[in-house]
Amino acid sequence: MTVGKHLNLSNPQSPYWLALLRIPGLGNQTIQTLLAHFEPEQIFSASAASLRALGLSEKIIAGLQQPDWVAVEQDLAWLAADNNYLLTIEDQDYPPQLREISQAPVLLFVKGDHRLLSEPQIAIVGSRNPSRIGEKTAVEFAEALASAGLAITSGLALGIDAASHRGALQVGGKTIAVAGTGLDRVYPASHKQLATQIAAEGALVSEFPPGTSAKADHFPRRNRIISGLCMGLLVVEAAQQSGSLITARMALDQNREVFAIPGSIHNPLARGCNALIRQGAKLVETVEDVFEELGQYNQKPILGSPEISQTALDLEHENLLKLIAYSPTTVDTLVQESGLSVEMVSSILLVLELQGYIASAAGGSYYRI
């Protein structure tokens, strides 16, 4: 093994930790079993008989006898770059809240501020295809929570995840993105610039070594890290069959607080959140609701929502506004319920939007704000 040229790591056992991660079929729980009996380096010189005695399969024993040192060299080359780190579950800097969970990852690759992983965090998750108001809500909650000194943790996915990361960054706060790939890759690729900014101002983290591409089974594994890192998890929008609900169940299993923002019974993206509330999640309308559940927290001043300057409405405008719901309402519905012409409704909608009473949604709909 020729790892010496890359060994600028504080832990001389790091190559052996990396080699364990590269053994096919060797999971976190089995690695923990091995580490209870051997130092990482000793595992690779242990006899087949002693490994069998620990219940290891012949396939895993064969893998331990012929580790992929070429892959380990590649991992070490990645770690040699500035701002890249490796945390083992035995390291002092490994996040203590994550160490508590079942199937805690034995290794974490970090790009950015690895110390941030141990700081108080709120995770924000939700739909990859949110409504405009859902995305706006995620941004505003992330801004307020980050301004109060909490790191915002999410999964770098489209939709609510990205909105949450951006909200934290917009107010100079900290954010952590947990990836389902190796950190030399970005998924989705459209978030490359966002990932670069997170690495510079927060942290990217993954249990997958460099070179690992996105696979469907990686994302549930990623989700347990998102929930495991945080004090509480906020679900902004989620359909009834949603990865966000899986993350919420993981959070409950990990004894984390779960928060959900309610929505209209007619909005399919609200059904997951409404179901969580029925099951005991904390109903959240303001950021103060989150802090109320978390108890005393050393908050910085909370960023308030920007005030919108609104002028008084005449009766015709006010009557149409009353017909617009806080969930998307179509122009056809407004024409039918108001008795006004399409032209008149469109004219009033333009005024209401300019004055900050409503916002447009996909498909030509509008909702109150």
Topology:
Elements: H1 14-21, H2 28-35, H3 40-43, H4 48-52, H5 58-65, H6 69-79, E1 84-88, H7 96-99, E2 107-112, E3 121-125, H8 132-147, E4 151-154, H9 160-170, E5 175-178, H10 192-201, E6 203-206, H11 218-229, E7 232-235, H12 243-253, E8 257-260, H13 271-278, E9 282-283, H14 287-294, H15 315-323, E10 329-330, H16 331-338, H17 342-354, E11 358-361, E12 365-368
Parallel strand pairs: 3-4, 3-7, 4-5, 5-6, 7-8, 8-9
Antiparallel strand pairs: 1-2, 2-6, 10-12, 11-12
Helix pairs in contact: 1-6, 8-9, 9-10, 11-12, 15-17
**Strand arrangement in the largest pleated sheet:** 1-2-6-5-4-3-7-8-9
Kindly state the number of beta strands: 12
Low-confidence stretches: 1-8, 301-309
Instruction: Identify the overall geometry.
Output: elongated
Beta-strand residue fraction: 5-15%
Q: How many helical stretches? A: 17
How many angstroms separate the termini? 62 Å
Radius of gyration: 24 Å
Biggest sheet descriptor: 9 strands, mixed
Helix content, binned percent: 40-55%
Order of helices and strands: HHHHHHEHEEHEHEHEHEHEHEHHEHHEE
Structural class: alpha/beta
Mean pLDDT: 89
